[in-house]
Write a structure and sequence with these properties.
By secondary structure, this protein is α/β, with parallel strands linked by helices. It contains 6 helices and 10 strands. The chain has one domain (22-35, 43-271): Glycosidases (TIM Barrel, Alpha-Beta Barrel), CATH 3.20.20. It is 23% helix and 15% strand. Strand 2 and strand 3 form a beta hairpin. Helix 2 (84-96) runs parallel beside helix 4 (126-136).
Length: 288
């Protein structure tokens, strides 16, 4: 598997992920998108309440059941703390400090020791982590890559992938066949914890990470389109997004084929605002 320098690039320091929201939120928000901007209290702490929920957005924020929600999220990666008995303590402390969400990288190399082999048991029990997050009252932003960067070896790609044919992070069919296997495993777990279904608190789902290669090339556009369609085919119905490595406008709404789903995609980017700074260009990105 050919890995470019971009595959191993890393950004040091703490990352602030910003969402630039388009002006309409799709099917789940049309019922109230034409009304005045929602006011009043934000939704309460989420839970696996077995109730159906609508998750959408307008140009200002996410909307949960028609109520405005601003996410305050911190990062918590189970592979960095391979001790499930400690997960609840960390998540409770996040909640106590005022966070209402946790952002979770899922590292392919942590769960796949070889081709066709996957382990989600013991210290790798993603199902347990997501269940604990819901019990703690935190929304979940799930980020399974397939490439996550995260300052880990190969951006989370398993070592065995480098010995396979194909070109990583492109629409190469060989590479995508391995990606599909990985996402099938992860998405089967994620689907059991979707907030929209009342099964858990997974509210957002990230595709790829800091992908700035082949932005204007079919190798990249077809790759992103494939990931999008795969995730949707696996039953993940929450808003999807990508994290641009800066305010570059890469992978904004309309930049690749989403199989006719025009408003299920958010544009996200890394930002590093200093105290007292106001980011200069939060607002609308992409077509429209």
């Amino acid at each position: 598997m050919e890995l470019s320098r971009r595959t191993f690039s890393a950004l040091a320091g703490t990352t602030a992920l910003g969402f630039a929201l388009s002006g309409s939120g799709g099917e789940t928000t049309r019922a109230y998108a034409s009304h005045s901007v929602p006011t009043g209290p934000a939704p309460g702490a989420p839970a696996a309440d077995r109730a159906r929920h609508k998750v959408g957005y307008d140009k200002y924020s996410l909307l949960v059941d028609g109520r405005r929600l601003v996410l305050w999220s911190g990062e918590m990666h189970p592979f960095r703390l391979p001790s499930p008995s400690l997960w609840r303590d960390i998540l409770q402390k996040m909640r106590a400090h005022g966070f209402n969400a946790v952002s979770v990288y899922v590292a392919w190399n942590y769960h796949s020791p070889g081709p066709g082999r996957y382990d989600f048991t013991g210290v790798r029990d993603l199902d347990l982590f997501l269940r604990t997050a819901a019990e703690t009252g935190l929304y979940v932003i799930l980020r399974p890559g397939p490439y996550i960067n995260a300052e880990v070896d190969g951006g989370g790609f398993p070592g065995w992938l480098t010995a396979t044919a194909g070109r990583a992070r492109t629409s190469d069919p060989t590479y995508l066949s391995y990606v599909d296997e990985w996402l099938t495993e992860v998405n089967a777990i994620a689907a059991r914890h979707l907030f929209t279904k009342g099964r858990g608190t997974v509210l957002l789902y990230q595709i790829e990470n800091e992908y700035d290669a082949f932005v204007d090339d079919p190798l990249g556009r077809d790759y992103m389109s494939h990931l999008y369609k795969k995730v949707r085919a696996d039953g993940i119905d929450v808003p999807l997004f990508h994290n641009d490595k800066g305010r570059n406008g890469h992978w904004t709404p309309g930049s690749f084929n989403t199989a006719g789903e025009e408003r299920g995609w958010l544009y996200g980017f890394d930002g590093y605002p200093l105290p007292g700074e106001v980011p200069p260009d939060w607002g609308d990105f992409g077509e429209g």
